[in-house]
Input
Amino acid sequence: MAAKNLPPTYDKIAQHAVFPETTHDEKARYNFLANLNKHLAHVSQGNATAYNKRVEPKFQEEHGRTFENKDELKEAMEQDPHYQIWSALRRSTMEMRQQAGRSLTYRQALDLKEKVDALNAGKDSLVLNKEVAVPSYLKAVDNHLMPGSYHTELFEGDVANAANYDGGLFVTTAGLLGRYSDGGGQAIGDWLLTNHPDFKPKRILDIGCGMGHNVLPIAKRYPDAEVVAIDTGVPMLRYGHARAMALGYENVTFMQAEASQLPFEDESFDWIQTTMFLHETGGKSIYNIMREIHRVLKPGGITLHIEQPQYTDDMSLYEQFIRDWDAFNNSEPYWSKMHDIDPKELMASCGFDPENYLHFGAKAINDLDDGKQKADEPEDHGRSPIWNVFGAWK
Amino acid sequence: MNPEADYITIASNKPKGKRPYFFNDPAVERVLNITMAVASELAVARERVDTLERILEEKGILSREEIETYVPKTKAIEEQRQTWHSEYISRVLRIVQQEMEELANPDKTLAEIADDIDQM
Output
């Protein structure tokens, strides 16, 4: 069951002036974890086997019928020894990933702050606003088990969690998003350039930008556009802005702003993008956010949203269940509920004409891909860099 | 607070939300987590040894071929190395040995011994 292809070593990750320093053993620890993640993607395939060979047949035998809903299926799978060991190992791996990242970033937390502050000083492309509150849906949980989430500062100017996120994403995804972990942003930028070469956005808004890893490839493809990247996590904005400066980007403004109260005029952006953001919002907020997107988008403009697949009636109960794993066990609680929403209806109810609805698949563009990466790779639900994109022209 | 002074504690902080446990007995999960952390550190140490070997080879101090084909030159070295393995395995599998000892010689509980001692 050894992985047929190997994750890139941690030293392949893109470095920049605010990137956290790593010792030999810190890199080695990340190499172990990337390999463990890859290995567990193979172990996860045993869940389907267990389901088909013993969990479902046993239920069938006891009840004279198959599962009627996800809850029944979940209860039965949770008693399966293979599901138990895979789940326990995967949870443990996520926790070890956070521990490894935070031990290396917090030991140099003051240095990281100084480096970030030096690059941010006097720049008007970082706009912070203390009036902007962190939304309750972000305060309720530490998404993907990162203690303190995106917004907590353990001291004034703390950016250690943002730096932890920067290095750690490469480990969790085993490098499948590329050296800058920006495979999603690259894919969406290429899609628009290829499919709509005449579309020349002047102003681009990226909502929930985090450390900006997915907005930078967009800014690179549209160098004449004014790009605004917003988030409520101040450490992410500070770090993301410094990172963009270090990487030589000049057309991106990082701004502290909340998605359901956009501080912009009506019809002021040509393209509004979110990447793996909506599943980290909440059941009411998602509608408020989409209404704001509709308000701020120019007529003739486009909005696109990269997400994991929606759950439709065609998707088996088993697949819905296994895709839910991250929602409950990797602390992304809205993930499951959001994927029950019909995105077409979501957009229609917020003002978008269903005639102009868009829906397509996207795959990460990976600058580390040597052609061996994908060979016989099993789908690791919720981790594979294969996404659904939905959106609309206005 | 000084984050750099407290980084060891900070690194292992728990995230929000009650932790899910997957085994019927949470104690099994606790042991698994500790075991996986140890497995990680063994991998780290192994990579460090590999780094050392490669640097030593680059500097012409030894060749990895020499390591791969190394054979102990004396009986004493052979015994030292085998003793290390023996001790290491015994240390890791301590509980199995203790369970076998208990099986061969069923023991009293400490409560029973306490009652015995009370009469001594």
Chain A touches chain B through 46 residues (CB under 8 Å). Chain A has two domains: 10-121+158-171, 180-393. Strands of chain A lie at 126-127, 203-207, 226-231, 252-256, 269-275, 297-307, 357-363, 386-393.
